[in-house]
Amino acid sequence: MCYGVATAPRGYPRGVIRIGTSGWRYPEWRDGFYRGVPQRLWLSHLASHVGTIEINSSFYRLQPPAYYRKWAAETPEGFVFAVKGPKLVTHNKRLRHVEDVLKTFTDTLALGSKQGPVIWQLPPSLRFDAALVGDFLAMLPPGRHAFEPRHESFRTDAYFDLLRAHNVAHVVSDAPTFPCIEAVTADFAYIRLHGHDELYISSYDDEQIDEWARKIHDWDRDTYVYFDNTMHGAAPRNALSLMARSTSPARR
C-alpha cells in the first residue's frame, strides 16, 4: 500500500466515485471479460459495467476528433473518459516548450460532456523541478488535470503546494517499480492501480480492495480510479470488485 505524506484537506462534499480501467483494447481479455463479445463492441460492453475508462492511445499519438466523438457515442449517458496527455509533452519535451503541442492536443478533444480529467504521466527519470512544474501547470487549459510523477524527488511539500495552487490532482499510483506517494491535492482524487506485486499483472485481493475503498471513502470528494493491471485480465474484475465496496450518490 501507499504511505501518506500529505493528508487530504477536509471540507469538500462527498463526490461521485468513478471506477474503471486503463484502456479497453486488450486481446488478453477476449476469453474472459469479453467472452462472446465482438471486438467492435468491446468499448460499449466495458462501459456498460463501469463508469469511466482512461483513453491511452492519446499518449502515443494525437487522435483525430472523430475518434473521440465515436468513443463518446458508444458509451452511455453519464459516462466519463479520462484522457492521457501525449508523451511528446511529458517524455520527449519533458514539459519544456510545449505551448503549441498543448494547444494542438486540446483542440483534438471532442468528448463533450463525457470529458473527464487529463492525466500527465511523467517519465521515471524526470526529477522534481519547482520552476519547471510550476510553469507547466500554469500553461494547462481549463478543466481537470492529474499529475503522475514516477521519481522519488516529487515526495516534497513544494510539489504538493504547486498542485494545490492550481487545483491539479496528484495521481496516487500503486506499483512495485516506482514510488507510491499518497497525497490528495485537489477537489478531486485520482488513483491508478498498476498491480501491487507485478507491474501490469497482479490482481488485487479482497483485503487490498477493501483498503482502497476505505481511502476513497475518507477522501470525501469526486474520485477517479483506474485499474491498469491489464495484462492477465485482472483489471475489469478488480474494478467491479471495488465498485461493489464503494458508495457514490451517482452512477459508478
TrEMBL record:
The source's domain of life comes to Bacteria
Which Pfam family is one of this chain's hits?
DUF72
Species of origin reads Lentzea xinjiangensis
Q: Which Gene3D superfamilies match?
A: Protein of unknown function UPF0759
Name assigned to this protein:
Uncharacterized conserved protein YecE, DUF72 family
